[in-house]
Amino acid sequence: MKIARLLYLLILTCLSLALNAQDKPLDSTLQKADTSRIIHIIKSDIFRRIKNDSTGDLNILIGNVVLKQENSLFYCDSAIQDPRNNQFEAFGKIHINDNDSVHTYSEYLKYTGNNKMANLRQKVKLTDGKAVLTTDVLDYDMNAKIGTYYNGGKVVNGKTVLNSKDGFYYADTKEVYFQNFVKVVDPAFTMATDTLLYNLKSEIATFLAATTIKDEKSRIRTKAGYYDLKAGKAHFTKRPIIDDNSQIIIADNIDYDKKTSIGIADGNVFYRDTAQGITMLSGGAKLNNDTKGFVAYKKPLMILKQDNDSMYIAADTLLSAFHAKDTSIKTLSTDTLRFFKAFQNVRMFSDSLQGKSDSLYYSTIDSVFRFFRDPVLWTRGSQITGDTISLATKNRKPDLFFVSENAFSINVLEDSIYNQLRGNTLTGYFIDGEIDNMRAKGNSESVYYLQDQDSAYVGMSYEQADAITMRFIKRELKRVTWVNGVVGTIFPFKKIPADKKQLRGFKWREAERPKNAAELFSY
Description:
Layout: H1 2-22, H2 28-31, E1 40-43, E2 46-50, E3 58-69, E4 72-82, E5 87-98, E6 102-112, E7 117-127, E8 131-141, E9 146-149, E10 153-157, E11 160-164, E12 166-170, E13 175-186, E14 189-199, E15 204-207, E16 211-214, E17 219-222, E18 224-228, E19 233-237, E20 241-243, E21 247-250, E22 253-257, E23 262-273, E24 278-288, E25 293-297, E26 301-304, E27 311-314, E28 317-322, E29 338-349, E30 354-363, E31 368-372, E32 376-379, E33 382-385, E34 388-394, E35 397-414, E36 417-431, E37 434-451, E38 457-473, E39 476-483, E40 487-492
Antiparallel strand pairs: 1-3, 2-3, 3-4, 4-5, 5-6, 6-7, 7-8, 8-9, 8-10, 9-12, 10-11, 11-13, 12-13, 13-14, 14-15, 14-16, 15-18, 16-17, 17-20, 18-19, 19-22, 20-21, 21-23, 22-23, 23-24, 24-25, 24-26, 25-28, 26-27, 27-29, 28-29, 29-30, 30-31, 30-32, 31-34, 32-33, 33-35, 34-35, 35-36, 36-37, ...
């Protein structure tokens, strides 16, 4: 027993001497190094020193190993320390506590103390207390506070999960730079890109390459910008595209607030309602992704697609939204209840019909255009004016019009020769884009020119009646019908009084008529 006790005390003495000796520089090379960066042994259940003449002695540490360098602590099951080169390899349950700010875990570690480089392998986990980075291979520069992985990694930040093949973690700035096959999964959306910068603290994702973001409502494609996941706000640049099953939006820049579903599009805005076949172009627009409504400004232009004769409408401001759902009308879905409003300097153009007014309202419920304040319509050789004009369409083609108050129709035959019809109200019907007939009611007056078989003008007829109907064939007036209280006069063509050639309120506004879609903005 005495011999055994003596041997035990001898072993403890040798171990103590070895532990004290390992903290001292072992050669002149290490003596010249920064002594503040020497790796110290704090704890180990078993300590062994192995003599190695070629590379210097090695320390074998087994069981509850704790090493320290400056403010960094290293925990592991076992380690092999190379004091001469100021480095070690660690095995088992490894934990690095870097100044109590970043904690790193793995099953294998090679650490070089001179440059504070940690090479971690197998089940690597790095966390700053909030976000967690996991990978199988991580090189962590504890001096620069930068972690790098190359064979796939995942970052979990709250409910947001980010994956990529390669990544760079910046501990000081709390940023991760993801590269190659980047995917972000959040309860509210998924994101796919090739390059992404993500701030773990602010939760702002900055797009550095083509990126696609999908949620339950829409898909966003952008090449640059950022998304604030915490605030739900985004700024997309370089012609981003937002689309869903019923609409598509493209612009130079789009700012989007997910919480309000409001987007502000700026610069060469393109909006298309794919369900309705309606397109809107403008310099800027405010959009609502929930209601599919928008307000367009900066020279907006709306295009209503038709088979061979699309309609173009321009104004200072264009507004569109969906009507509230009427559950009593089961045949109508919310996708068919859109309405449009245009304000100030409204101009309209199609090959068969042109128009102008101060404001306009159009609803897909009844397919009626309503023009307000000094409206005027032109169709082929005819002009229609009044206080308010309603134009009903069928399959987006003119079907009939109604003018309330101060209704006036002018049909040009040639320079200074006009057939005219006026009344309190005026109703007209179209066939294949041409006016077939018109009926004026209330204090009606008409002027029309008589022609012989050779189409030479022989006279002019002026009539008054309660109601007057004019019928046309191929744009030519063929028949006039008067009802009640008819009073009229026929003047020979060469003896028409100058004051009888034009009805009261006559104004031929051909100069205001847009000749093509491009002229809608020449005002």
